[in-house]
Amino acid sequence: MPPFLPLALAIAMPPQAGLEAAVLTEINFARTRPRDYAERLRDYRKFFRGRIVRYPGNPDGLRTAEGTRAVDEAIRFLERQPPLEPIEPSALLARAARDHVREQGPSGRTGHISADGGNPRARVQRRGGGDYVAEVITYGPPSAVEVVRQLIVDDAVPGRGHRRTLFAAEMRYAGIACGPHKGYRVMCVADLGRRPDGRP
After folding, report:
1. pTM of the predicted structure, to 2 decimals
2. CATH code of 178's domain
3. Does residue 11 fall inside a structural domain?
4. Cα–Cα distance, 52 to 151 (Å, whole number)
5. N or C: which end of the chain has fewer CB within 10 A?
6. 159 vs 36, 117, 142, 200, CA distance in Å?
7. 3 within domain boundaries
8. Total structural domains in the chain?
9. Is 167 contained in some domain?
10. Long-range pairs for 170-173: beta carbons < 8 A, 24 or more residues apart
11. What is the DSSP letter of 106?
12. Structural domain of residue 49, as residue ranges?
């Protein structure tokens, strides 16, 4: 976990330029070329010492729950995963994702439930869409590579739900929003749907 910035700086810090587009590009690399992505994870694995991973750009290290076990399991998954169609961007889904970032960032909250009790489906419906959507969120990773790697390795997540969502063949559209977060500096939300409006 990177050291926290002072609150005023964390809230003022804009998302990395192009981060949202870069996250989608990275997701699509993994979906369309899963075996090549597995090679990237093999390189990443070399930076582990026990459960701590120190990779270029993160010399302080990141403590994981599972160490290389989760990475190895992700590599095996990717080796068996057939290539999928790329995900297309959706403006409506991006607006729903942005709503969640704007609410959680200043408050420091985490999770998929809004302060009013709404879930990802409710947020998409408020924007005029349907309720056939799924959502993945990262807190902390500052780059597209780190965001997508966290979702695919899915360290300490039972059932690897984030990974399963990214590799669900029926998910063909996504809206991605990233922004500053009070506790973790950066958060990224991706809302995915079968159609660009989240309808069946």
Report:
1. 0.90
2. 3.40.33.10
3. no
4. 18
5. C
6. 23, 24, 25, 24
7. no
8. 1
9. yes
10. 170/194, 171/87, 171/134, 172/85, 172/87, 172/88, 173/87, 173/88, 173/89, 173/90, 173/93
11. H
12. 16-193
Residue 9 within a domain = no
pLDDT in tens, 4-57: 333 333 344 444 449 999 999 999 999 999 999 999 999 999 999 999 999 998
Give residues with Cβ within 8 angstroms of 78, minimum separation 6.
30, 34, 35, 37, 38, 41, 152
Residue 153: burial class (beta carbons within 10 Å; 0-12, 13-18, 19+): buried
The residue ranges of the chain whose pLDDT is under 50 are 1-17
Inter-residue contact 104 to 128 (CB < 8 Å): no
CA dist., res. 121 & res. 89, Å (int): 18
Q: Quote the pLDDT of residue 59.
A: 86
Tokens of 91: 């403006």
Neighbouring CB atoms inside 10 A of 112's CB total: 16
- C-beta of residue 197 within 8 angstroms of C-beta of residue 90: yes
